Amino acid sequence: MTTIYKVNVNGSSEFDITEDQVSSLDAIKISNTKSHILQDHSPFQTEITAANFNNKEYTVKVNNNTYTVAISDALDVLIKDMGFAVGASKLVNSIKAPMPGLILDISVAVGDTIEENHPLLILEAMKMENSILSPRDGVIKSIAVTKGAAVEKGVLLIEFE
């Protein structure tokens, strides 16, 4: 069975590309991000200038023209057709204590704009320091705890706008 990839270019053009077509491509890798491709006797210089591996989106420069490319496999298409959004679990609006412990440090303030995986606070539990990271990009709406406070499991720590 041949794998088929759906490739969307600049949000407007969509192509189906098979695994066999990718394998038969006449390409020479120049570096981790650059390649030289020969297609129908025409040369192409390519460079991946940005990559978002989680969303399978890439910014690719081909002969000095820049394109945004999104690649989907059969599972991605099925998930989309079923109405599930990749990353829907990232709609977390509050952080609660995963375990009882002591707040050692708070790295954010109300109104701060933060990115996913930004450290929010350090929770000491069972003599171990646990760094609580932001599950998504957002703005801090409120901080319900203070440094040095003892918290129980499930207690609200931080809310997002």
UniProtKB/TrEMBL annotation:
Cross-referenced Gene3D superfamilies: 2.40.50.100
Leader peptide range in chain numbering: none
InterPro entries xref list: Biotin_Carboxyl_Carrier/Decarb, Biotin_lipoyl, Single_hybrid_motif
Domain Lipoyl-binding: 83-161
Domain of life: Bacteria
CDD domains the UniProt entry points to: biotinyl_domain
Alphabetical keyword list: Biotin
Full protein name: Acetyl-CoA carboxylase biotin carboxyl carrier protein subunit
